[in-house]
Q: What sequence folds into this?
C-alpha cells in the first residue's frame, strides 16, 4: 500500500495512532505533504458524505475528525517548514466558550469544515474570551465559530465579541454561534453575524459569510 492510500485508509478505519504514524512515515519517506493533505481531505469527504446520507453516524464522524487532525498537525508543520503554504478556502477558529465543556458539536463542525477545504484552528473547550481573540488575531481568521450548550454560558459569547472589539479586530472576522443554548434571535442580540442550528449548517454559513 502506498503512503497516500495508507493515510486515507487509516482515517477511514478510525485509527488515530495509525493515522499519526502513517503521516510521520510518509513525511520521512519524502512524500509531498500537500498530496498527503489531499488524501486526508478525500477521507473526510467520504465520511462526511456517509454522515449526510445516514450511512454513517456521529461517532464515526468524530473519530474520523480526530484522526484527521492528528495527521494535519504533522503535515502542516512540514508544509510550513518547507516554505509552502496549504491552499485553503479560509481559516476558521472554533471554540466552546468559557465555562462550557461540551465538545461534540464543535468536533463535527471541525470535521465538516476540514472536509470542505477550510483550515480549522480548534481552540478547545472552556476557552476565555481573550484566548479566542488571540487565536483569531494570530491565525488571521476569516470566521470565529462559538459554541455553548448551557444557558448559563451562552452569555459568554457576548463577552467574546466585546473582546474582539476591544482588541480592534472585530471588523476583520465574522462571528457565527451555535449550540443548544442559542438561536437566531440571540445571535442578533449580541451582534453575531450568523447562527447555525445544526453542525451541518456550518459549512454553508461559513461559505456565505466569506462571500
A:
Amino acid at each position: 500500500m502506498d503512503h497516500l492510500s495508507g493515510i486515507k485508509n487509516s482515517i477511514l478505519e478510525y485509527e488515530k495512532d495509525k493515522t499519526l504514524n502513517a503521516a510521520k512515515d510518509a513525511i520521512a519517506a519524502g512524500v509531498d505533504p500537500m498530496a498527503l493533505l489531499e488524501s486526508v481531505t478525500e477521507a473526510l469527504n467520504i465520511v462526511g458524505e456517509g454522515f449526510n446520507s445516514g450511512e454513517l453516524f456521529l461517532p464515526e464522524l468524530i473519530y474520523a475528525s480526530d484522526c484527521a487532525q492528528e495527521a494535519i498537525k504533522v503535515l502542516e508543520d512540514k508544509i510550513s517548514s518547507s516554505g509552502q503554504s496549504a491552499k485553503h478556502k479560509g481559516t476558521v477558529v472554533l471554540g466552546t466558550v468559557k465555562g462550557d465543556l461540551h465538545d461534540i458539536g464543535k468536533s463535527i463542525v471541525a470535521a465538516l469544515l476540514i472536509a470542505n477545504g477550510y483550515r480549522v484552528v480548534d481552540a478547545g473547550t472552556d476557552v476565555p474570551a481573550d484566548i479566542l481573540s488571540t487565536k483569531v488575531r494570530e491565525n488571521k481568521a476569516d470566521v470565529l465559530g462559538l459554541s455553548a450548550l448551557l444557558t448559563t454560558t451562552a452569555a459568554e459569547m457576548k463577552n467574546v465579541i466585546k473582546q474582539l472589539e476591544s482588541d480592534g479586530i472585530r471588523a476583520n472576522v465574522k462571528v457565527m454561534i451555535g449550540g443548544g443554548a442559542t438561536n437566531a434571535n440571540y445571535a442578533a442580540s449580541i451582534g453575531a453575524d450568523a447562527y447555525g442550528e445544526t453542525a451541518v449548517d456550518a459549512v454553508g454559513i461559513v461559505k456565505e459569510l466569506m462571500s
The two ends are 40 Å apart (CA to CA). The CA atoms of residues 187 and 195 lie 6 Å apart. The beta strands are 91-96, 119-122, 143-147, 174-178, 194-196.
